[in-house]
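Help: why these numbers?

___
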Amino acid sequence: MWGRQRGEKTAGLRDAIRDQVRESDALHVALGIAFDRYTEVRTAIEAMLDRGDGLPAKPERDFFARRGDMWDAFTHASAQYAEGRRHFTEAGLEAEDDPKVLADVLKAQASLIRTCERTLKNLKDLVSRIEKRHRRLLELRTTLEPIRARVHTGLAATTRDLAWAPVTPGRFALEARLNAAADDLRELDAGIVTFLPAMIIPSRYRDIEEEIAKVRDEVLRLG
């Protein structure tokens, strides 16, 4: 009687372990797919940066730098899975008839599954966030293109007008204002302005455009 109960318990533990192994296999596949998507979107974002078109390069790089632990979490979960999977074979499971050993295996597998589930959830949340960031960057690039063209055209025209303006009182002050506007423009183009939310960047370009226009109006009065 006792032997039959032990056998039934052992068989039940084996079935539970098989179910867990299938679940951890599926989780590991899902984890790999999610991390591939994370890498794909991150690569797409990084390919957009540092092109001098006003996209906020530094904030994006800082965002990813603060999330280096995601790579650590993924590699840790993958290593745990690989280690647990390496020791699992159907033949080995059938050969093991000690319920305590099987219960320990079940407990270890449950811990592994919880780790993978947490990592997968965090990774999916992060993927969702960076997909939104990618979409916003694409929209921002489209928005900025005509604004930047106008600002640079205005800067070039005002610089030319100022170069031909007579040396009269006020000319050098206008030159200083124009240089300051040009410096601000270079920072925006380079994407190194960190204190601006992405949605404010077009407004900042328009502010510079307005300042350049004011300088140009005053330059014309010099002559």
Observations:
- The mean pLDDT is 87.
- The first helix runs from residue 2 to 48.
- The helical segments are 2-48, 57-65, 69-86, 90-95, 99-164, 171-190, 201-222.
